[in-house]
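Intended use. Records like the one below are meant for learning the mapping from a protein sequence to its folded structure. Do not use them to infer anything beyond what is encoded.
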Amino acid sequence: QDRHALVPRQDPQAYLNARVVGLTGLSYLPGRTLLYLEQDLVGETTLYFQQNSSDTLDVSLGVDPRVKVQFTAEPPKISENGITNRIERAYKYKLSIQNKHNRPIQVQVDEAIPHSAHEDIQVVDVRLDGARPEGEQGLVRWLFDLGSNGEKSIQYSYSLRYPRNKLVGPL
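Structure written out for the chain above:
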């Protein structure tokens, strides 16, 4: 099984991760292992196997150059309401992913949406374009299949609303 993992705001590249299952009952020697992807050497690692360990092995194969990622952040729109003495900053992002492989791929996109622990600071108008929240700390995840030579665009946005006298740093 393989999956392309993205954290676009941190690094707009797709990292290929492979999962090998069914290792129970097989004997392996620990040591240096060369990693190949489609007959190309992509790196090396050292594997350690222990008795009673999982029958699953997860391996990162690095950046996949055949998956193109473009991340765009619009400048925040800031509005002030003099009557309520509050500021609202609206953030909007767009992510485009292109699969240049001749086979479908599975893609996982992780992103963080602000989470306020202060009652005067609110995260409002959250639009996630199909993502599902992962826990309560603002992590959201998109998980989808992308067809061979396919493309997908994701747009998401949110606004921060807070009193004028509060200091809220840039995101």
